[in-house]
Amino acid sequence: MGLYESELSGTMNPEPRTQNRNSEHERGTRNVEPGTVRLSDIATPALVLDRAALDRNIARMAAFFASGSCRLRPHFKAHKTPEIAKRQLAAGSCSGLTCATVGEAEIAAGFCDDVLLANEIVAPEKCARVAALARRVRLTTAIDSLAGLEALSRAAREGGASIGVLVDLNVGQGRCGVEPGEAALTLARQAALSSGITLRGVMGYEGHLQPVRDRAERESRTRQAMQGLVRTANQLRDAGLPCEIVSAGGTGTYDISGRVDGITEIQAGSYALMDTDYSGVGVPFEPAFWVLGTVVSRPARDRCVADCGHKSMTKDHGVPAVRGIDCATVTSLNDEHATISLPPGSTVEIGDRVALLPSHVDPTINLHDVFYVVEGQVVVDIWPIAARGYIEHRTRTRMEEPA
Ligand SMILES: Cc1ncc(COP(=O)(O)O)c(C=O)c1O
């Protein structure tokens, strides 16, 4: 698995998102000369990344997969940031990257030659983009229906490509996926017969088990869920069908599914950056990012308000935690406000900076254009979140802007 020169080659809009006009962070990043600017100087709200903590998380996960036969395929959707993905690949133990959208896969294919698009792609326009990608890199995607398979097969034939597929199984999450066993075997047989399609195996994401707090329960339920996946993989092989990939797992189950005989790859993503939800699960990774805000109001002795609301971090997994102020808690998040309850005698003043640890990595990062990468208080780099949003809509936005 190699690294390509240009991370953005082949995307519909090769310029990083930070080049859009009218962005506060465009001005912010132009003004920020890495190495000379301190955190206290950047515009808030902003996404801050502790590079040393990120590297420790990446190294810890790579070390786990350095032994055993299972590989890691880090999920790009968690951070959508090429600089982070390149560090994950460089750390080793990886078979490639996982993506959730065609746009992410287009960005990832700029620097990674083995991409799993672990999602059902059915629209003709998107299938055509998948076929175009499959001509450039080893591209594998998920199917759970005949209709999806036929759409991909048609696009592959028209595009002169061979698209790899995994049959997606429902291993208990109740989202996409056919049932393990006969239904999966039937679809796999059909895939093996379809022109332009290369059957590569099966996947089954045990998403419902990632947040289970009790380790023993998480372990036993995950092993059980993986049995259906591994059994189906063996049924494919017994039927003479190819099944080189058996893919599953996330940050909450990487060390359970990743040690089940027959699972070949794990799709974990959040571990690199971590959020408070996963910290509660007790996985051995540390928070590596936060949202930086500025205190804009101090209306009571026990309360302050910062300028980082839920337009800068999501609250679908709960309100964020406050870093660096003992006993301070976020009591509510509004669009552009975080209301923070302060301990008695707090010396927080208007203009002070606050660091909030988000409860959910993926959707929070998707709200931002860049990471301010820090060592201590110094901004040492700025990394574009190149795959944020839906990149296919960017060209139109640019065209509509006045010259
Ligand atoms: C298909 C799929 N695989 C893997 C993951 C694992 O991601 P994480 O490690 O961030 O929980 C997810 C997360 O939503 C997913 O949807």
Could you please describe the fold and organization of this structure?
- This protein folds into 2 domains: 17-50 and 284-397, Lyase, Ornithine Decarboxylase, Chain A, domain 1; 51-274, TIM Barrel (Alpha-Beta Barrel).
- It is 31% helix and 22% strand.
- It has helices spanning 24-31, 51-66, 82-90, 102-108, 124-136, 146-159, 182-193, 215-238, 254-257, 276-281, 361-365, 394-400, and strands spanning 37-38, 46-50, 71-72, 97-99, 114-120, 138-143, 163-168, 197-203, 245-248, 265-266, 289-300, 303-306, 321-323, 329-333, 338-341, 353-357, 370-375, 378-384.
- The protein has 403 residues and is an alpha/beta fold.
- Helix 5 (124-136) crosses helix 6.
- Helix 5 (124-136) links the parallel strand 5 and strand 6.
- It is built from 12 helices and 18 strands.
- The strands form 2 sheets. Strands 1, 2, 11, 12, 13, 14, 15, 16, 17 and 18 form a 10-stranded mixed sheet that branches.
- The chain binds pyridoxal-5'-phosphate.
- Pyridoxal-5'-phosphate binds next to loops.
Topology readout:
Elements: H1 24-31, E1 37-38, E2 46-50, H2 51-66, E3 71-72, H3 82-90, E4 97-99, H4 102-108, E5 114-120, H5 124-136, E6 138-143, H6 146-159, E7 163-168, H7 182-193, E8 197-203, H8 215-238, E9 245-248, H9 254-257, E10 265-266, H10 276-281, E11 289-300, E12 303-306, E13 321-323, E14 329-333, E15 338-341, E16 353-357, H11 361-365, E17 370-375, E18 378-384, H12 394-400
The structure holds pyridoxal-5'-phosphate (PLP).
Pyridoxal-5'-phosphate binds at residues 75, 78, 118, 205, 207, 210, 250-251, 267-270.
